[in-house]
Amino acid sequence: MSELKKFLNRREEGLAEDRKIKEGIVEEENPNLTDDEFWGILNQFKIDSKLNTNDPSEIFQKILEQYSVLKINQFAERYKNLNK
What we know:
Blueprint: H1 2-23, H2 35-51, H3 56-64, H4 69-82
């Protein structure tokens, strides 16, 4: 149950940030990986893998170059937990 609550809280934070952006309120970039970023990375990898014949690790590396070290580490931890 606590995992569901954590997910819903993160989602609520993400939606609040989206509303602020639409209203023109600019804040500092969130240093933590959001759910949208996590799923965006996975979806981008899936799309690029289908369109590209490069090595999957090269594709993944190019996608992750856009993110900070903290976000990459958070992505790796969440991905590991997702595939347990």
